[in-house]
Amino acid sequence: MAEQQRHRVVIVGGGFGGLFAARLLRRAPVQVTLIDRENYHLFQPLLYQLATGILSEGEVAPPIRHILRRQHNVDVEFATVTGFDLQNRTVTATRLDDSERRHPFDSLIVAAGAGQSYVGHDEFARYAPGMKTVDDALELRARIFGAFEMAESEYDDAARRAWLTFVVVGGGPTGVEIAGQIAELSRGGLKRNFRKVDPGAARVILCDGGKEILAGFGDRLSQKASNGLAKLGVEIRTGCTVTDVHALGVAVKAHDGSTEHIAARTKIWAAGVEASPLARLLADAGGASTDRAGRVEVLPDCSLPGHPDVFVVGDMMSLDRLPGVAEVAMQSGMHAANTIKRRIAGKQSVAFKYRDLGSMATISRFRAVVSFKGVKLSGFAGWLVWLFVHIAFLTGFKNRFAAMLHWTNTFLFSGRAERAITVRQAVGRVVIDEAGGQESLRIAPPQARP
Amino acid sequence: MAEQQRHRVVIVGGGFGGLFAARLLRRAPVQVTLIDRENYHLFQPLLYQLATGILSEGEVAPPIRHILRRQHNVDVEFATVTGFDLQNRTVTATRLDDSERRHPFDSLIVAAGAGQSYVGHDEFARYAPGMKTVDDALELRARIFGAFEMAESEYDDAARRAWLTFVVVGGGPTGVEIAGQIAELSRGGLKRNFRKVDPGAARVILCDGGKEILAGFGDRLSQKASNGLAKLGVEIRTGCTVTDVHALGVAVKAHDGSTEHIAARTKIWAAGVEASPLARLLADAGGASTDRAGRVEVLPDCSLPGHPDVFVVGDMMSLDRLPGVAEVAMQSGMHAANTIKRRIAGKQSVAFKYRDLGSMATISRFRAVVSFKGVKLSGFAGWLVWLFVHIAFLTGFKNRFAAMLHWTNTFLFSGRAERAITVRQAVGRVVIDEAGGQESLRIAPPQARP
């Protein structure tokens, strides 16, 4: 079969890096196998909207194979990569039923991304979920809307205030966006829903260890963002280190050395990432090094040293101190794919050059900050750019249309379409037995369900 | 406070019975507490659309307190009822943090509905989930879309066919609708998505123990439904009893006594319901009897014998052999609420009279069967009535609009908006270790997630 003689490209990961690499190979004389442990491509920049009830799973996470359905030279495998054999040029993937498959490759692109990092405090994870997967976002959604429910039926004032206090750790775009959205939904989206508590009285505290939030955006936008959040009622604490996280709250240390305990039932971790464990696995297999964030150190053309046909792209790649953003993943994924095409055509590989297309973060409805090649926009102008870019980049006409519908509902009417709390979404919810002071990780509700 | 001297009504359950009772008390001189263990009102007639990727959670399960936000005499409690004390007139509810609250009442309406019944074979539940809660539907969604994924990466022919075989047990409206939708999505919605398997080759088998499907609709509509499903490729087996369900398939017995094993990875249980365990709890507390389906036997005005202020409505109520449908729940809920209003006004209670507004079931896009007061509609005319009624009854303008958008996508373009499979949704997925033949209930994917 002619198919089998084609150059075989295996791509690990269907995020921005892997998906854009696959797309670029659309007309190349190659056969592509894209392996992901999820069946969906996650549009990560909108994950905070899933966590706050604006968009649904389908809108931020369309199936990878549906996106690539018209690209006939791509096979999509729903499996978890568990091994690399660079000598024999195979990738091992384990399917959901534990059966293993070996996928031979001529070129390999590894784009497995990054997960949340708790910088040595993995025990924080159960109390302060991160924002990396659809399950993370659905758990946060259950925790956030559940907190208002718990407050409503709480008789004790202090306990009620703890349910109405939300601490977001990390002042990058994700932290800023989720803090802004929690504040907005408490001020608008839950109007008239409660009888005993005023959801608008919720405290949202955004902690960041640095001198300012959105540090990468420059002083002016950082200040604009701070002002915008302050208008929404978000308390911003810069120079603030989180020293402990538990079921009932967090301990923080200010830069002057003073410490404080904040009683807060809902904590969200948006500080720091570390590369997928596949980075370590690949580095070990290929004799490469990893950096402090666990990313694989690559040559200027994104290839693994000594393995010119193996590429690492996106959040897993350590190169030129590039930031862990979607744009870097897309561009490096496309660069790797292009290099494969060039090699097949007998051309040399060239160094990857990142074209910085700027960054943006929404603050509230009608307000965003945008930084693009020295141009800094904020307020409504920034929001229009945010809206335009996100509609343009959302995958598929149908998702664009559905997202616009939900945005109309949210931005104009403060509505939140997705507020269902389910047992499984709330798995991992940490509750405390108030009588005994004993912590327990609750998996099922008090009573067995029929 | 004047509030506290008002007649206190406690409603247990925010389904059709409880919600319509609460709404009817809008202008009555009462204070209502509605307690539900979920934060959402489930629009059960569309649950099959959640399970097959057409609608999202938010569209079929809006928050109860949001629906009732403008009704100031209602408090919504998110808690699980764990006890009734009819002497002291209190209901005990346990919140998610295990703390208990006692809610005093002057009148009580219990409308906790019904769960799936496996008629003495609870061990079938793990292999053949039912269709009662949002979690059920999300698990089914993960299993259905996951089955096509597994088939795609399966090399063995027989194993692949088992992944592409779906058995639906129960030929009532729910069974008919889910069977039709699985057939439709396999024939249309997954087009071009797969490389190795043809999703359209999926077998959908609908088993029913009776002589015909949709027995309550009459012979003509039953025949129309059978023909419609057959056109979609659904295999209908009537007079067919399921004698065993396990990870790899089901054993069935035909009415002639012959037996067969059907290799099928995905099984859906839509046969039989039993009343919520709260029915037993209430009957014990009030000295009442329950029937074979666990429902509480009530007087003609829906009240508990000897307790004129305690009402049981909907699927939990045993009265006049009324069917377990949404209409009965709504009307009996409203009847109970009306009786409370009449009593406060010094009037006598009257017997509940069910006005049969007919029944309907969708077969495929553009086809439904409708039975209404002797008028029988099928095909496109039936579907138009189905569409009209469902748009009219969906709660909230926004949900109507969103549902119409998704229906346009599905009915005109065969699209499925919601196809994300997440680990937690698939919790409970039963897989089999093919090497060892050992069954295991998988909770996490093979590799720990970062």
Largest interface summary: A-B, 86 and 87 residues
Low-confidence runs of chain A: 427-450
Q: Number of DSSP helices of chain A?
A: 13
Spatial gap, N to C terminus of chain A: 55 Å
Radius of gyration of chain A: 23 Å
Kindly report the spatial arrangement of strands forming the biggest sheet of chain A: 3-2-1-7-19-18
Q: How much helix is in the residues of chain A?
A: 25-40%
Into how many domains do the coordinates of chain A divide? 2
The CATH class designation of the largest domain in chain A is Alpha Beta
Amount of beta strand of chain A: 25-35%
Number of strands of chain A: 25
- Summing up helix and strand content along with how strands pair, one would put the structural category of chain A as alpha/beta
Q: What kind of sheet is the major sheet of chain A?
A: 6 strands, mixed
